[in-house]
Design goal:
The chain has a five-stranded mixed sheet. A three-stranded antiparallel sheet has the order 1-2-5, with no helix packed on it. It is globular and about 40 Å long. It is 12% helix and 31% strand. The model has no long low-confidence stretch (mean pLDDT 89). The chain has two helices and ten strands; from the N terminus they run E-E-E-H-E-E-E-E-E-E-E-H.
Length: 148
C-alpha cells in the first residue's frame, strides 16, 4: 500500500500500487502548476485509489482549452496549495496523480519525458529516458485510437 498526502497533511490518500506510465511533463502548464522544470505524473487505476481524508480541502482549477482537447486542470489542497490527485478524474478506469504527493516509494521509476519542446530554457535533461515532443505524443495517440 502506498500512502500520499499534501504538505499540511489535510489531504491523505492511498493506492494499492502504481502501474504507470510515470511521466515527467515539461509542458508550460505543468511547469507553472508545479513551479519547477516539470511535473511528475504517475498512472494509477481508479479501483486502486482511496481518498482517506480532506475531500473538502481539494480545489480544482480548470484552464480553458487553448488549442484542442484535452482540457487542462490541476487539483490542490486549499490550505497549503500542494498538488493532490484530481478526484474528478477518478471516474475513469485510469488516471494520473502527482508523484511528488506520495509519501512512499512507488517501486517504479520515471519512464519518459514528455512535451520536451516546451522545456524551460534553463533546464537540461541529464538522463537516458525517452524524450517526446508534442508532435510525437499526437502521433502516438493517433496510432492507439481505433478507426472511426
Amino acid at each position: 500500500m502506498l500512502r500520499g498526502s499534501c504538505l499540511c497533511g489535510g489531504v491523505k490518500f492511498e493506492i494499492e500500487r502504481a502501474v504507470g506510465p510515470f511521466e515527467l511533463c515539461h509542458c508550460t502548464r505543468c511547469r507553472k502548476a508545479s513551479g519547477s522544470a516539470y511535473l511528475t505524473w504517475l498512472g494509477v487505476r481508479r479501483e486502486d485509489f482511496r481518498l482517506l481524508q480532506g475531500a473538502d480541502l481539494i480545489k480544482t482549477y480548470e484552464l480553458p482549452v487553448s488549442e484542442s482537447p484535452p482540457p487542462y486542470d490541476t487539483s490542490f489542497c486549499s490550505r497549503c496549495g500542494s498538488q493532490v490527485p484530481n478526484l474528478s478524474k477518478t471516474r475513469e478506469p485510469w488516471f494520473e496523480i502527482p508523484a511528488g504527493s506520495l509519501d512512499d516509494d512507488p517501486l517504479i521509476k520515471p519512464d519518459k519525458h514528455i512535451y520536451i519542446d516546451f522545456m524551460a530554457p534553463w533546464d537540461h535533461i541529464a538522463d537516458d529516458l525517452p524524450q517526446m515532443t508534442k508532435k510525437d505524443i499526437q502521433a502516438s495517440r493517433n496510432l492507439t485510437r481505433p478507426p472511426a
